[in-house]
Amino acid sequence: MTASPPITPEVLPIPRKPPEAARLNLVGLTRPQLRAALVAAGTPEAQAKMRENQLWQWIYHKGVRSFDAMTNLAKDYRALLAGHFTIELPEMVARTVSADGTRKYLVRIAGGHEVEVVYIPEDGRGTLCISSQVGCTLTCTFCHTGTQRLVRNLTAAEIVGQIMLARDDLGEWPAQGRAPKDETRLISNLVLMGMGEPLYNFDAVRDAMKIAMDNEGISLSRRRITLSTSGIVPEIARAGTEIGCMLAVSLHATTDELRNQLVPINRKYPLTQLLDALRAYPKLSNSERITFEYVMLKGVNDSDADARRLVRLIAGIPAKINLIPFNEWPGAPYQRSAWERIEAFADIVHKAGYASPIRTPRGEDIMAACGQLKSATERARKSRFEIAAEAGLPQPERVVRRPDAPDLH
Ligand code: SAH
Ligand code: SF4
């Protein structure tokens, strides 16, 4: 333990309620967990592997939610399954569609907490951005999610469930008799870039991603799944060996001094440690580059000198730099860099040999863009004053509210 102040001083963890139903939810179980559950419920050992595959196909290939519909299983066996198990997803409580086609889903999980999921259609692909936690224990000063105080880890079922709910909404389940390979995949890519720090919920994220990658699961290639982390150094190697998906790292600053302010976990895992862990990332090669995310904050991290320092810092790492124009949210203590500034920055990075795409903000009109996510029902938000104080910025002017003014949050 060090004597430095805690990085996440004011988080109120939400206790997980014990499951009410006696029946076990099959969604989100790993293969060994499912097999063990089937055997415990009376499936003969010799059949368990076959039953496991059949159930996965019904649940993840076909989107079936009732044991009765599983027509290649004997009636008695279906009844046995229904007596012991459920197939349950979180509840989709709202759906908003942006003028640009982006869809934002509000998803309610056990206990009444909510997370957001965003679907971004683009030419030739569709990306689903999923959440790993309600809120986030980290307090990056430019991120709306980081202002939410209540935090709870999602279960593997709740993480896979987000993908399944989006497939429901998009009508993506294959028609009867069609093989998964013949499907139109509206969701072709998956990014863990919604609410939460995925590496602080490692086991559930790993189990959910294994289901997403499995050929009998959601069947997405591991190269089409990207996990974004703020830099939880001890878990980075594990992400490579135990999940094996693509990695994105929220860098955002090129000196420890600035990164300590923007991404406070940097005080625990500073830049040299982070970059060493990335150089050792098991999957790293020219064909599997690391994505560095870099949010463009006006006058804060967007100078030519920052761009040059960035390319020196990551020298030797096969990488792509994703420049994210800052997305504003109510009370945010930063502004988006001017477009010409972002382009000048991108140019320096590009000339140094790195792809440097500028991420077009999507779904801003529905607050679905990066860093804008936060449960609408979440009331315990930090004030503008607390945010400014954490960012080391001057205090905003206080606005005196009329006693009859409506409460906007
Ligand atoms: N917790 C993980 C993943 C979720 S955030 C992480 O931090 O990497 C997904 C990306 O959006 C991160 O790169 C994050 O830094 C960025 N982001 C957060 N707030 C933002 C904002 N207001 N504007 C633009 N990007 C933002
Ligand atoms: Fe958490 Fe990522 Fe937001 Fe930082 S940027 S507060 S790690 S969700």
Automatic annotation (TrEMBL):
<feature type="binding site">
    <location>
        <begin position="250"/>
        <end position="252"/>
    </location>
    <ligand>
        <name>S-adenosyl-L-methionine</name>
    </ligand>
</feature>
<dbReference type="GO" id="GO:0030488">
    <property type="term" value="P:tRNA methylation"/>
</dbReference>
<feature type="binding site">
    <location>
        <position position="327"/>
    </location>
    <ligand>
        <name>S-adenosyl-L-methionine</name>
    </ligand>
</feature>
<dbReference type="GO" id="GO:0070475">
    <property type="term" value="P:rRNA base methylation"/>
</dbReference>
<feature type="active site" description="S-methylcysteine intermediate">
    <location>
        <position position="370"/>
    </location>
</feature>
<dbReference type="GO" id="GO:0005737">
    <property type="term" value="C:cytoplasm"/>
</dbReference>
<feature type="active site" description="Proton acceptor">
    <location>
        <position position="116"/>
    </location>
</feature>
<feature type="binding site">
    <location>
        <position position="140"/>
    </location>
    <ligand>
        <name>[4Fe-4S] cluster</name>
    </ligand>
</feature>
<keyword id="KW-0004">4Fe-4S</keyword>
<feature type="binding site">
    <location>
        <begin position="196"/>
        <end position="197"/>
    </location>
    <ligand>
        <name>S-adenosyl-L-methionine</name>
    </ligand>
</feature>
<dbReference type="InterPro" id="IPR058240">
    <property type="entry name" value="rSAM_sf"/>
</dbReference>
<dbReference type="GO" id="GO:0046872">
    <property type="term" value="F:metal ion binding"/>
</dbReference>
<dbReference type="InterPro" id="IPR040072">
    <property type="entry name" value="Methyltransferase_A"/>
</dbReference>
<feature type="binding site">
    <location>
        <position position="136"/>
    </location>
    <ligand>
        <name>[4Fe-4S] cluster</name>
    </ligand>
</feature>
<keyword id="KW-0479">Metal-binding</keyword>
<keyword id="KW-0808">Transferase</keyword>
<dbReference type="InterPro" id="IPR007197">
    <property type="entry name" value="rSAM"/>
</dbReference>
<protein>
    <recommendedName>
        <fullName>Dual-specificity RNA methyltransferase RlmN</fullName>
        <ecNumber>2.1.1.192</ecNumber>
    </recommendedName>
</protein>
<comment type="function">
    <text>Specifically methylates position 2 of adenine 2503 in 23S rRNA and position 2 of adenine 37 in tRNAs. m2A2503 modification seems to play a crucial role in the proofreading step occurring at the peptidyl transferase center and thus would serve to optimize ribosomal fidelity.</text>
</comment>
<feature type="binding site">
    <location>
        <position position="143"/>
    </location>
    <ligand>
        <name>[4Fe-4S] cluster</name>
    </ligand>
</feature>
<dbReference type="InterPro" id="IPR004383">
    <property type="entry name" value="rRNA_lsu_MTrfase_RlmN/Cfr"/>
</dbReference>
<dbReference type="GO" id="GO:0051539">
    <property type="term" value="F:4 iron, 4 sulfur cluster binding"/>
</dbReference>
<keyword id="KW-0698">rRNA processing</keyword>
<keyword id="KW-0411">Iron-sulfur</keyword>
<keyword id="KW-0949">S-adenosyl-L-methionine</keyword>
<dbReference type="GO" id="GO:0002935">
    <property type="term" value="F:tRNA (adenine(37)-C2)-methyltransferase activity"/>
</dbReference>
<dbReference type="InterPro" id="IPR013785">
    <property type="entry name" value="Aldolase_TIM"/>
</dbReference>
<dbReference type="GO" id="GO:0019843">
    <property type="term" value="F:rRNA binding"/>
</dbReference>
<feature type="binding site">
    <location>
        <position position="228"/>
    </location>
    <ligand>
        <name>S-adenosyl-L-methionine</name>
    </ligand>
</feature>
<dbReference type="GO" id="GO:0000049">
    <property type="term" value="F:tRNA binding"/>
</dbReference>
<dbReference type="Pfam" id="PF21016">
    <property type="entry name" value="RlmN_N"/>
</dbReference>
<keyword id="KW-0963">Cytoplasm</keyword>
<keyword id="KW-1015">Disulfide bond</keyword>
<feature type="domain" description="Radical SAM core">
    <location>
        <begin position="122"/>
        <end position="359"/>
    </location>
</feature>
<dbReference type="Pfam" id="PF04055">
    <property type="entry name" value="Radical_SAM"/>
</dbReference>
<keyword id="KW-0819">tRNA processing</keyword>
<keyword id="KW-0489">Methyltransferase</keyword>
<comment type="similarity">
    <text>Belongs to the radical SAM superfamily. RlmN family.</text>
</comment>
<dbReference type="InterPro" id="IPR027492">
    <property type="entry name" value="RNA_MTrfase_RlmN"/>
</dbReference>
<keyword id="KW-0408">Iron</keyword>
<dbReference type="InterPro" id="IPR048641">
    <property type="entry name" value="RlmN_N"/>
</dbReference>
<dbReference type="GO" id="GO:0070040">
    <property type="term" value="F:rRNA (adenine(2503)-C2-)-methyltransferase activity"/>
</dbReference>
